[in-house]
Model the fold of this input.
Amino acid sequence: MTERQAPPEDGTGNPASTPLNPFSIDFSGDAGSSDGSVPVGGGFAPIAIESDVDRAPTGVSVDTGRGGRTDTKLLIIGSGPAGLTAAIYGARANLEPIVLAGSAPGGQLMITSDVENYPGFPDGIQGPDLMALFRAQAERFGSHIVDVDVDRVDLSERPFRAWARGVEYTGQAVIIATGASALWLGLESETRLRGRGVSACATCDGFFFRDKEIAVVGGGDTAFEEALFLTRFASRIHMLHRRENFRASKIMQDRAVAHPKIDIHPNRIVDEVLGEHHVEGLRLRDRVSGEPEKMEVEGLFVAIGYKPNTEIFKGWLDVDPMGYLEVRDETGSKIEGVFIAGDVHDHRYRQAVTAAGDGCRAAIDAERWLEAQGVTESSTATAW
Ligand code: NDP
Done:
């Protein structure tokens, strides 16, 4: 198979920097308070970004220790492509954003190996390297990024408030960019081989399975959509579903049944993904007979749904029937001054580039709203 590479390592377990990438992510847990490192409240594996890019002479301090800035014009929750793009735009508009990045910052690209569809990288880029670039660019203009999970928010009045690890952060405007998480089966072997044949994104990774035999697990529309998309690449696709009946719409089922490359296997439980360094097969079990079965495939796409990360906004913002935040008037929400960007509302495209675009839109909308409230001066609106 066309083996996908895990992020290259420098021998210390850290992804190495690449010629395109003058930054390296340090997962050593030794983030100091020197320039360029990212503050954590302690206990998390911090990410320190070493950059040889000069800081912008904005005079905006990037406080890297405890006791850094906690109030801002623009508070951003989430640090995937949407959150960090919002930070780049917000910082360049002098909104001095604080990004509450989560304890596992960077979003879903941090668990993606090759990213070949993000424009500007003709040779592809590793997901973590791409996010390090986003982050360095956001910091260069004065964004203050804190790797903490937000426990709760109070969006009842301005300034809006968010708490993380006992610290209260306030923002005159908020951009929510908490993303969505793919659901996984929960197998140890699945986790181990993620990025080495196990994927949750056919659009991102289907290309690597040209002329390969692969499996898709799940029985909803996502699974059928992924399987049908993968027929462009794979030689054969086995759809594995744990029950007899499928949740997917009839039309999607009919298309899959009619497709010569797709075989449908109901009542199959995936017990293990086989392979040491990359996927070599699956150990399955027939749910009805209990019979074990081995299936030789070189890839497994897990398509059992997504969970938007909206828990902390319950009671404040509306969600649609699928649980995603409801957007009003482009990137707004039902609360004036609270904006929404990326996969936390978008279950249609779910791409890094669309999330980044959304972050840009939300930052521009937030800046214009802040200006209308008299929080910022009017000179920044076109100075992106
Ligand atoms: P669904 O919840 O509809 O389906 C998830 C599927 O995964 C179910 O078949 C479920 O099995 C299975 N599953 C869940 N957990 C496990 C597990 N641990 N092991 C094995 N199988 C598991 O999610 P989708 O993402 O497919 O769809 C979500 C919504 O988005 C739906 O409303 C869907 O219609 C919509 N959608 C629409 C699309 C379109 O119109 N083009 C495309 C994609 C999604 P079980 O059935 O046994 O619970």
Summary: The longest strand covers residues 167-176. Residues 185, 217-223, 225, 242-243, 247, 304-306, 322 surround NDP (CB under 6 Å).
